[in-house]
Amino acid sequence: MTRSVAFVGAGPTTIYTLHALLQQEVPPFELTLFEKQASVGRGTPYRPGWNDPAMLSNIASVEIPPLEETLVDWLHRQSDDRLSELRIDREQIDDRAFYPRVLLGEYFHDQLQAMLERATCAGVKVNVRTRCEVIDATSGSDGMTLVVRPERGGVFETLFDHVVLATGHQWPAQPEVRPGYFLSPWPASEIEKIRACRIGIRGSSLTAIDAAVALAVSHGAFVDDGQGGLIYAPGVGTDDFHMTMLSRKGLLPEADFYFPIPYEPLAICNDEAIEALIAGQMDDLLDRAFGLFKQELAAADGVYAERVGLDRLDMEEFCDGYFAERMATDPFVWADRNLAQAQADYEARRTVAWRYAILRMHEVIQSLIPHLDDADFQRFSRFFKPVFVDDYATVPHESIKRMLALHKAGKLDVLRVGENYRIDNHRAESGAVLHLDGEAVHFPVFIEATGQRALAAKDFPFASLRDQGIVRDVAAGQERGPARGIVVDDEFHPISPDLPADQLFCLSLPFIMGRHPFIQGITSSCEIGQVVGAELAAALARESAVAAEPASEAQGMALS
Question: Is the pTM of this model over 0.70?
Answer without folding.
Answer: yes
